[in-house]
């Protein structure tokens, strides 16, 4: 049986990820306590766990709120995501099988379908799942854990920065070329395409893009 703190943790996390609690919103501890019929103590335990994962901020005498990332924090997270995405894809190109890559194609289709029907949560969830699947194919347990950790924050950033269907479709249309590069074991294309995929969304530093081969102008 799950503990009360685990139940509270999953409930609050679901509310955040499903956009019932948006970034910057205070977390209604009393309502959650009443809804789950549990005391405030396991809720506080759950909030501390979510804070450790970077999803919640706990202020002194102000309660807990869903984390709202600054532009600089988003840029820093983007830099980490970029380096880990590239490594995941390069390892996946080496360890992956044809069936693995076919699965990525199906997941890319699901992501596009969710975006096309205006399912914001479904699109974000499918996008996260797609990139985490690439990490899974890498066969590197440490990298998989690191990717899972960063993609929890990535999910929340996507919620806060989601604009419209057209912009979303443009971004996720990068998935198929990334899969093709992984299939073809084209390490240069893997670097370039991953840079193109997230550089604007996260405001990736031009120097970092140059390091990964994501820009043509070496004077930047």
List keywords for this structure.
220 residues; mainly alpha; two-stranded antiparallel sheet; 11 helices; disordered C terminus
Mean pLDDT, all residues? 91
* Percent helix: over 70%
Overall 3D shape: elongated
- Provide the structure class: mainly alpha
**What is Rg?**
19 Å
The tally of strands reads 2
Question: How many helical elements?
Answer: 11
End-to-end separation in angstroms reads 56 Å
Looking at how many chains there are and whether they match, the oligomeric state comes to: single chain
Element-by-element helix/strand order: HHHEEHHHHHHHH
Strand order of the largest sheet: 1-2
Q: Which stretches are low in confidence, meaning pLDDT under 50 for 5 or more residues running?
A: 216-220
Provide the β-strand percentage band.
under 5%
Please describe the biggest sheet, giving its number of strands, its sense, and whether it closes into a barrel.
Answer: 2 strands, antiparallel
Question: Could you characterize the architecture of this molecule?
Answer:
Helix content is 71%, strand content 4%. Helix 4 (71-95) runs antiparallel to helix 10 (187-202) and helix 5 runs antiparallel to helix 9 (175-183). The chain has helices at 4-17, 29-36, 40-52, 71-95, 98-116, 120-137, 141-161, 165-172, 175-183, 187-202, 206-211, and strands at residues 56-59, 63-66. It is mainly alpha-helical and 220 residues long. It has a two-stranded antiparallel ribbon with strand order 1-2. The protein has eleven helices and two strands. The radius of gyration is 19 Å and the shape is elongated.
């Amino acid at each position: 049986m799950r503990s009360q703190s685990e139940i509270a943790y999953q409930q609050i996390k679901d509310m955040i990820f499903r956009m019932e609690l948006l970034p910057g919103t205070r977390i209604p501890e009393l309502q959650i306590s009443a809804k789950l019929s549990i005391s405030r103590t396991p809720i506080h335990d759950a909030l501390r766990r979510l804070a450790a994962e970077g999803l919640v901020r706990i202020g002194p005498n102000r309660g807990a709120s869903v984390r709202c990332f600054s532009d600089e924090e988003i840029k820093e997270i983007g830099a980490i995501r970029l380096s880990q995405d590239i490594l995941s894809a390069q390892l996946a190109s080496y360890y992956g099988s044809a069936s693995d890559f076919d699965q990525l194609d199906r997941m890319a289709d699901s992501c596009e379908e969710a975006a096309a029907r205006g399912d914001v949560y479904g699109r974000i969830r499918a996008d996260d799942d797609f990139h985490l699947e690439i990490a899974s194919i890498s066969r590197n347990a440490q990298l998989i854990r690191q990717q899972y950790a960063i993609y929890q924050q990535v999910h929340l950033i996507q919620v806060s920065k989601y604009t419209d269907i057209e912009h979303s479709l443009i971004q996720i249309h990068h998935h198929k070329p990334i899969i093709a590069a992984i299939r073809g074991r084209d390490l240069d294309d893997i670097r370039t395409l991953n840079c193109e995929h997230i550089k604007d969304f996260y405001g990736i530093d031009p120097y970092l893009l140059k390091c990964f081969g994501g820009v043509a102008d070496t004077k930047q």
